[in-house]
Model the fold of this input.
Amino acid sequence: SAVISQKPSRDICQRGTSLTIQCQVDSQVTMMFWYRQQPGQSLTLIATANQGSEATYESGFVIDKFPISRPNLTFSTLTVSNMSPEDSSIYLCSGRGQGGGYTFGSGTRLTVV
Amino acid sequence: AQKVTQAQTEISVVEKEDVTLDCVYETRDTTYYLFWYKQPPSGELVFLIRRNSFDEQNEISGRYSWNFQKSTSSFNFTITASQVVDSAVYFCALRPMNRDDKIIFGKGTRLHILP
Done:
């Protein structure tokens, strides 16, 4: 199955700034997804990253706050914009491979101060 | 409605005991995948198993086993002879195959294995 390298693994950011998280997959994946996991909670899907087109956002998430890029089948970025302490979470990317399996990146642990 | 329920929020057992994590799901789709993932304290999500809805055979992998019962919409996970390294949050998840590719996660069960 695919291996996803996600970075940074963690960061501490000032409120009002932005952070871009990158995910690189070692093989082509048909779909990529971005999740947020708030402390002690389950994973919440932010958006589905489509190659060559705009991402599809879930209810409660907007492009201005979480812009996503997917320039090719092996790479995607998520930006957390104008951060506030409420954005402190683990952010995970996921890829769906040709065989239907889902692989996750190692996560980015974000703290906003 | 598509939903995954993990009723056990937190479980603590003593090392070497067996422990079962419950998972109940809801879907109107006749074909779907079920998953279990492990999330250790480091935060990454580790894939454990994927089960197709057509395959109700139980599966054993070392100390791990899974019991899939379509009649009760359950997909329970048992760890035999638990070890401290099994301490983690475990997520059950559902992907209905006739929809988009989204996975629906349960809220997770935090498992503490006490030495």
Summary: Residues 64 and 79 of chain B are 5 Å apart (CA to CA).
